[in-house]
Amino acid sequence: MSGLSAIIDLSGRPVDPGDIAPIAAAAVGLGSRGPVTRARGPVAMAWLARHDDLVEPGDDQPVYSAELDIHLVADARLDERERLWREVAPSGRGDGPPPPDSRLILAAFRRWGTACVPHLLGDFAFVLHDARLRRVFAARDHAGVRPLAFARVGERLVFGSDIGQVLACSAVPWRLDEFSMARFLAGFGEDPARSFFEHVGRVPPGGFLLADRGRTRVERWWTPASGPEIRHRHSDDYAGECRAHLLQAVGDRLRGAGPVVGVFVSGGLDSTSVAVLAADLAAHRGGPAVAAATMIFDRLPECDERLHSRLLTTARGIPVHCVPAEEHALGDPEDGCRPTPDSPLFSWQGAFAAMRRRLRASGVRVALSGHEAPYGHLGHHRIGYLKSLLGGRWRTVADIRAHGRALGLDARHTIESLLLKPLLPRWIHDLLRRTRGHAPSHLLPGWLSEDFARRSGLGRLARSPGGLSLLFPGVSGGEREFPPRLGAVGSAIMRRDREEASDGMEARHPLLDRRLMEYLARLPPEQVLREGLTKSVLRRAMRGLLPEPIRLRADKTRFSAYLADSRRVLAERRPPAPFHDFELVRRGYVQEDRLRSAWSGFIEGGRWTEHLEFTLLAESWLSDYRDRIP
């Protein structure tokens, strides 16, 4: 991953070349060689190249085409480059090898204009200025693997890979976006089109920005369901296609990886599938060797994955480096865990840094990940079950019963959890709970200030309808759920990319491949859900490749116990500041007495909650920037 920054004056006034320097310098963990800048008239751009052995030969960004009077800077890794080059080469033939990805994007823009983005496959973010039209065009890949933030100040647009880069422009104020903070504290996640600052936005995943002197507009160019539902006569055809798509996704991400590629494995289906397919490519097509890393636990056996990692070694010969995670408390400031302006969610470092060091010592420069797969594109099982029933596929009843048994639910709770709960509006949930003598199911944490929730507009989210709206004709659950899930994906990916870049590595994400995601989004529900197992088509695709205990594994390791244990360890070493000194309390976002009560309950042996974790993360973030945020 590389980085980019740009200042563009849409009025045509020249930009001082010195203005781009602090914006480029504010990037986190990018550009080991330092920024390469180009300034000409109303445009100043900077490119923060990746480490030397990950830079494409001939990539001389920022790019300027005198013929077209276009400036471009890109952070990109494109797939199907030969196909794209044949389509966009000026000669019309695409003779010779394709040029670097930045030049391919420029050639695609020359051919299709702003309609070029759907023709680009891979991970990318770019900013392009067309001087003849005095127009800016910027875009981001379908899943938001490469980040892109921006702000408009009068006639000037400021871009950066990091939010902190945009804020490094003296004209952009550090004013907090209270709605973003409120939804974070309430556990709704991050809006992929917003930041935590009022004047800084993000080009969303699958989105583009178009700006001229009159206005700036941001729209989506991609949705996951891009065609009719796929139907085959034989069930094995689905599994074969899924394996082919995933194998292509893994293979494309091995380009330029060097002799050894790393994989972070958790012992679940997703990351182990990536590791095994990379090893299969190494064995049959001469790809790079595979080295994996995982965390092991002695005090927290529910988090331990060494059994499954040993299966990978014995069955497939993949060496797995095991890191004792309990030696590192998650979120320990001594491990370099600090937030950035991008998000209160910060890099945990610790055990993750130890895994990276193990892989780096093995010669790894590119690391593959499978941890982003749960975010929506393998099918929403609850909506899938109902759609399958409405389609007359009554074998779904057996699948629902099997799923309920796997979750340890009786018949009544199976129907309630897997069918009714996701479909009913929240007010009906609360009504049913009251009829059984239960308290309403509040989404908001009890210590969140009611006044803050009201003035920030958070109440609208808390009262949002349930899954019933997903059943309207022409609207699929995947399309409705996809954008907010990608906000979480984008934050996780950025943290991982920055961590690995600091150790001279690049993260790549095969399970977020656009071709794979579009295929999975068009599958019939019964191909995703079968016999109580989610991701059924992926499990069948990996038959004969993955060890059976991993392929058919119904449970999933959760690291909440590790997080709770880490919080207790850190509280013993360094108790939190008095609650009346919290920035969240001072600003009126949370109620001091209720937060103190929740924390005391946890310290005395109570359950750790996501709401409490997000509150402490938000407090750490606000405290770090209290001198900058009014």
Description:
By secondary structure, the protein is of the alpha+beta class. 38% of the residues lie in helices and 15% in strands. It is built from 24 helices and 17 strands. It has a six-stranded antiparallel β-sheet. Strands 4-5-6-7-11-12 form a six-stranded antiparallel β-sheet, with helices on one face. β8 and β9 form a beta hairpin. The longest helix is centred in the C-terminal third of the chain and has 26 residues. The radius of gyration is 25 Å and the shape is globular. The two termini are 33 Å apart.
Features:
630 residues; alpha+beta; 6-stranded antiparallel beta sheet; 24 helices; 17 strands
What is the compact description of this entry?
The chain is of the alpha+beta class and 630 residues long. The model is unreliable at 374-380 and 465-485 (pLDDT under 50).
Mean pLDDT: 84
Number of strands: 17
- Low-confidence parts lasting 5 or more residues at pLDDT below 50? 374-380, 465-485
C-alpha termini separation: 33 Å
Subunit arrangement of the protein: single chain
